[in-house]
Design a protein that fits this description.
- The protein is of the alpha+beta class and 260 residues long.
- 17% of the residues lie in helices and 28% in strands.
- The radius of gyration is 21 Å and the shape is globular.
- Strands 1, 2, 3, 7, 8, 13, 14 and 16 form an 8-stranded antiparallel sheet that branches. A two-stranded antiparallel ribbon has the order 4-5.
- It has one domain.
- The protein binds zinc ion.
- Zinc ion binds next to helix 3.
Length: 260
């Protein structure tokens, strides 16, 4: 045997998140601790989970599609949740009675039609029962910054003093900290015959309508337009945004390819 064949060709990108205000990514509260809002850590290292990054990137792409392809129905994103979980206000974003809204519907994977037509965001990030092309990494804190504890208190409106028993402890990372990880984008999957930017013709139950009939050039502007530029446009992440937390600067740089 001369060369072992690998199934997937993957493009790698180094993602850096720099905090430009205090930053909080929430973890579950430890019942043994008096910290009310702990920061997420992995083996003691502060992290931004892949799911948080993916959620922020997906939301950023939704906004881009709505603003930049307003008259193209196939480019409309779905709201990635089941219909039953949508709020009244979210349902209003789907439009009604011949008046299309900014979103096409609830999660694409939930459609009754056959085959289900996937939106661009479900193509890239996955829908119920179908993986996408983008794998968001955990971002790890690099550098010397450490978790800081902020004490919040609530004023008693009657006495105008700090309400008793109302001190809350919140863990944050200060501004100027850098988190880093490696984003993976599947360029080609040999077994499934998937190529980024092309419709996946072997799928019976799904249609990549937005790429039909011929797809887009994956090597050219496709990755930049729909993934990298959207990542760099993420303005804020995490919790307590209304208190001025979570402002970030994102930077993405190519880091080669690998086969797996
Ligand atoms: Zn969708």
């Amino acid at each position: 045997m001369s060369e072992i064949k690998k199934n997937q060709q993957i493009a790698l990108y180094t993602v850096e998140l720099k905090t430009t205000s205090p930053f909080h990514i929430g973890a579950y509260q430890d019942p043994m601790s008096d910290v009310n809002s702990p920061f997420t850590t992995l083996s003691g290292v502060p992290v931004v989970q892949g799911a948080s990054l993916k959620g922020a990137l997906r939301a950023q792409l939704e906004e881009y599609l709505i603003l930049n392809y307003p008259s193209d129905t196939a480019m409309k994103p779905c709201i990635p949740a089941p219909w039953n979980n949508l709020s009244k206000d979210e349902r209003a974003l789907l439009g009604q009675k011949g008046q299309p809204g900014p979103y096409r519907g609830s999660s694409c994977g939930e459609q009754r039609g056959w085959p289900k037509t996937l939106c661009p965001t479900c193509y890239l990030f996955g829908a119920q029962g179908l993986v996408g092309f983008v794998r968001a990494p955990y971002l790890y804190l690099v550098g010397e910054e450490e978790i800081e504890e902020v004490y919040e208190n609530r004023r008693d409106r009657a006495s105008n003093t700090v309400a008793s028993g109302a001190n809350r402890t919140l863990q944050t990372i200060p501004q100027g900290a850098v988190f880093r990880g490696t984003l993976e984008v599947i360029l080609h999957d040999h077994i499934r015959k998937w190529t980024l930017g092309q419709p996946r013709r072997k799928l019976q139950s799904y249609r990549d309508e937005w790429l039909e009939p011929h797809g887009r050039d994956p090597q050219g502007d496709f990755i930049r337009e729909f993934i990298l530029d959207r990542l760099e446009a993420i303005p804020r992440m995490g919790g307590f945004v209304s208190k001025g937390f979570g402002n970030v600067e994102m930077k993405v740089t190519p880091a080669g390819e690998k086969a797996v």
